[in-house]
Design goal:
Rossmann fold; single chain; alpha/beta; 3 helices
């Protein structure tokens, strides 16, 4: 789906052979690097078919109801872990209960939302986070140079995850 809720271009209608892959970005585009997820998600969804883009979300809690029943949910977000700005990390939340070394600018952490979704039987089968270490979270639009330079790598990671899920279907 596009940010407006439509299925991405080229998606075969009713193709039940493809796994349900949801792509979601977290963050606020008016907080500089916090908008990185939106940019990465938009670029990745344009490169593959059969993906449900649930649009940018400001808070992880907004994912409830949008990622329900998916085989794979890919969540893209800027991180604040004290690492090198622009570093891209891929974390499978099945392998960890909390995103190690990073803090959230959101009210409830993504792993907290995942635990809640599991408790009510609405969690995706797999959740993978693609994070880009941010540099500037001040007010304003536009990404810092380090994060801008990392966008193609992050897009590539998201596309790889989607294609892997589709190959395994």
């Amino acid at each position: 789906m596009t940010a407006g809720g439509a299925v991405s271009p080229g998606t075969p209608p009713g193709d039940s052979k493809l796994p349900r892959v949801v792509v979601a970005s977290l963050g606020n585009e008016y907080r500089r690097d916090d908008g990185a997820g939106r940019v990465v998600a938009a670029c990745a969804v344009d490169r593959v078919c059969g993906v449900h883009d649930v649009g940018p979300q400001v808070d992880p809690l907004d994912l409830l109801g949008r990622w329900d029943g998916s085989d794979l949910a890919i969540v893209i977000d800027a991180t604040r872990g004290g690492g090198v700005p622009g570093a891209v990390q891929v974390v499978d939340l099945a392998a960890t209960s909390e995103h190690p070394g990073a803090t959230s600018t959101h009210g409830i952490s993504l792993s907290g939302v995942l635990r809640l979704a599991r408790a009510v039987g609405r969690a995706p089968a797999r959740v993978v986070v693609v994070g880009i270490e941010g540099d500037d979270f001040g007010k304003g639009k536009g990404l810092s140079p380090a994060v801008t330079a990392a966008v193609p790598l992050a897009v590539g990671k998201v596309v790889e995850l989607i294609e892997e899920a589709q190959r395994c279907a």
